[in-house]
Amino acid sequence: MKTTRSRFKKPPTVSKLVLEEVIGLTTKSGNGLASNVSSSKCAYLAGSVVVILDVNSGTQSHLIASDRLSLKPLSCVALSKDGRFVAAGETGNQSSVLVWDSSTLSVVSELKGHLLGVTCICFSPNGKHLVSGGGYIYLWDWRSGHLITKFQATSSGSTVSSVGFSSDAKFIVTAGKKHLKFWTLESSRKTQQNGGMRRTARSASLAIHEKLANLSIEKDCSFTSIASSVWTNSSDDNRKQAGGLFPIYALTDSGILYLIHSGLSVKKSVILKVQRAFALSTSEKLIACACNNGTVLLYTPVSLEYVGSILYSKAKKFYEENNTVYHAVFPEQNSQQLPALPDAVACQFLAFEKLVVIYSDHSLYIWDIHDVNQATKCFVLVSHSSCIWDIKNLCCENMHDPSLACTAKGCSGGISFATCSADGTIRLWDISLQSDLSKDAKELKNELLGSSCLGNLRLSKFSIQLCQNK
Questions:
Q1: Gene3D superfamilies this protein is in (predicted)?
Q2: pLDDT per residue over 330-366, tens digit each?
Q3: Are residues 287 and 302 in the same domain?
Q4: To 5 degrees, how large is the angle CA 260–CA 261–CA 263?
Q5: Domain of residue 354, residue span
Q6: In angstroms, rounded to a whole number, what is the distance separating the alpha carbons of residues 92 and 77?
Q7: Cα(421)–Cα(24) distance, rounded to whole angstroms?
Q8: Contact 297, 291 (CB under 8 A)
Q9: 386: helix, coil or strand?
Q10: pLDDT tens by residue, 10-64
Q11: Do 127 and 275 fall into the same domain?
């Protein structure tokens, strides 16, 4: 007797996973970090996820295209002026630009058209349009998903490294290898026939034309970052000093900062005296330039006067016994052989005179720059600086078996695990430590956000010393 089998098998039920927390980041340049100078939130990349970090509350929210079967890594991110909408560009072939509503964490628009990946992205000042760069420059009406126009910014086909709008939204600026161009935005007109009478009316489309500029910049200059001025009611003095024009700042990889008026002429420039410059950010009062060897230089808008610098430091101080780091101690005779500090690859201003900086070792620092002569760390996010090879659960404080799911069964011992990486470190983590740290946030300003790193074992032939994480 043959057994009967159902022709249609019921698909197995799969519980929907909810992303609670992200440890680490994949931001590699200034295009992978965005913020709003009027809020305490910044956005950075972690693989195919955009992480929104609220510095005041120390909380994360996550933007992800969860309805997709496969996700692509993200390469760039931008915030609208009001901070509500977040856009991110994908890497790889047939890539898209995704736009989320940060209040609902849902995708509100997917813009398709890029063939070889999106490298940079920017909202227009009024939030109506979005410009994205890759092999071509695309101008979108992102709410409707309509592609207004696209054009090739460089005849050589080289990738555009930075794109942005002027503050008055009359220009799009593109920058890259031996490339800095201005493009005018003009409303196109069309003629309509109405009862035998012809009339000209503005259409909803925009026309883009290259605007020739007398920049007097060396032809071999390669630009890494551009930024427009930030005008508010409190910055009228800067506006008057700029002569009513709308300055644009451009930074070269060799470390030259240019001030360019919307009249398309270079008004001023300054040599930063660094080996390399990576990113640029502007606020009402300051301009920040992220440079090599962990240096961020600060200048005044318009006048470009140097006012201070922020230096990455590996010095650690003692605060709490439960927040420790183990790292190598080098003998004094080898002090000149110490490796260079990680580069500052991205920076963005936040509200309340804060500056977020991402370094090439994948760490994120929030600096208080109320006193530019003595910037202080507010928060630090640490992670591995290279790929993670393995992850293992560890026993809780009560020495229960790691496989017993202690927290789910009411154990108060916490959840801890260890990770090892190609950067030569083994890190110990405790997910539940965050709530304990937040209780003492006022006393411990330099707490770690998110999961706390209990320890860091660096594989080295040198001695290992216990010190405190800051």
A1: YVTN repeat-like/Quinoprotein amine dehydrogenase
A2: 344 444 555 689 999 999 999 889 999 999 999 999 9
A3: yes
A4: 125
A5: 30-189+203-314+340-381
A6: 16
A7: 12
A8: yes
A9: coil
A10: 555 545 788 888 989 999 999 999 998 888 999 999 999 999 999 888 889 999 9
A11: yes
